[in-house]
RNA sequence: CGGGGCGUAGCUCAGCUUGGUAGAGUGCUUGCUUCGGGAGCAAGAAGUCGCAGGUUCGAAUCCUGUCGCCCCGACCA
């Protein structure tokens, strides 16, 4: 591509409404332009990168045996009513009516549509398993779109849906997709991690997210150093150790005027935070004997609200009791609550259950208890995994120590089970002629998000640094004084033609710009390989080569072969 | 949805408190000089000051409404 014919809309200034580096760079380098909140146009150079990522995804899906389809972005509301999600989905789903006043929505996902088609066409077990995928625009009306392409409203997504006769075959395909995802993320040059995700489904349904590691990531990941365990902190388990020291101290009520927080009490009584048990009061689930329920946590731990919401005795979604409700139930302020002589039922987190001789609130203003013990001073409580995992915890699988990383969710593989096939009455006949409801899996990759995510972990002060596999061009040829020197012009044109002939996507900066601006643009748009041709280097029959990642340029022989050698580098 | 902020030249912003001829930088056009890390000088084109009302002799500026966008939070998956 001749840059004189290819508008490079680069700017020096950083747009004020871009918060994260990938968003800033994509605007500055002219990859995207904003049309509205969460809506972006891909300009020619940016689109080249998007298409490359898209093709890698397509190749790997094809290789894994999935079949590409293309479903409409506009979906009939009827199907969503059939699955029951029309009323469940919130404002995230953009709804509208056509001229006949029929309900429609802009696709946020496509389980309903694909299930509808499979129901039309798939009748026999002989036709299964099957895995359909598409790479198509989605729209989710996020309440707060942000971070450019990272959380846009309209985005490009690869979504795949597989159908199976039984859970075993679903599991096989799940791992098949997982392998395909590993290949995709590896090929686009991302440093990533597959982590266990929130798997709410009963029946051992598996769910894993593929995260690109980046400090700007919205998700926190718990990864075992020296082990293989990795999970989204929302889903990271905390296992009981099964050990608790015997009670050795006598129960004693002490005056702790004004000491309301765990930190304050810990310092005031000179006991470590790990020796304190705190009690959170939350709303109980419908049908529980008491409207409130207490959750006991060790002093240094935080509640994991996802886990709490899933506990059968806790109201979902999770809701904390108000100070007034606590006062009514306990007759004291929230700073002095404890599980001993507690007026409401208590569930203890495993870690809180394993503390002996602990300090806790006395359920009386300005007083705490010392030397408290489960079993002796209160009934042995029901226990559950309720706390958030913390760095330094032992890995739940027993191998390694937990460390936190930030990640950007780029993909998700999920065993759906029969949720949609059942709701939408999809059945196929098995070899005995019996109708069977197929098992489903779904597998997504945020294609446009992946572009931003890779960039998020691959940039420097000069701008973008694209991996070869998804760079808009692999090589940029920068002739110095092309207008003045026939030799430079001829050499640059020849190299440009030769590289293209060799199948290398090459940009020729024939704009006649000054060297400074040429180099700055080449760096900003992140072309991985740069060849500079000037009279000085040609005098010694040399080109100047610089890798985008390298500090300095180096001289190479002025030949196509020498350049190709560097690309193989 | 709650709180805060911003809409002025293609882009980034000043001007608004205290009403009186529309500004800068950058980008763009032309010319001359320059030419290895975003050049210099000169000339030039470019804005119904988000939109609609109102107050006023006069509104970018004050008031009301409205739309759009951004940030924090909550919410959702």
User: Could you say which structural class the secondary elements and strand pairing correspond to?
Assistant: alpha+beta
CATH superfamily of the largest domain: Bira Bifunctional Protein, Domain 2
Q: Give the helix level as a range of percent.
A: 25-40%
Number of strands: 30
General description of the model:
This protein is α+β, with helices and mostly antiparallel strands. It folds into three domains: 12-191 and 415-455, BirA Bifunctional Protein, domain 2; 252-384, YbaK/aminoacyl-tRNA synthetase-associated domain (YbaK protein, Alpha-Beta Complex); 473-568, Rossmann fold. It is built from 15 helices and 30 strands. Strands 3, 7, 8, 9, 10, 11, 12, 20 and 23 form a nine-stranded mixed beta sheet that branches. β5 (95-97) and β6 (103-106) form a beta hairpin. α1 crosses α11, α2 (44-63) packs antiparallel against α5 (167-187) and α2 (44-63) crosses α11. The radius of gyration is 30 Å and the shape is globular. The relative contact order is 0.14. It binds one RNA strand of 77 nucleotides through α13.
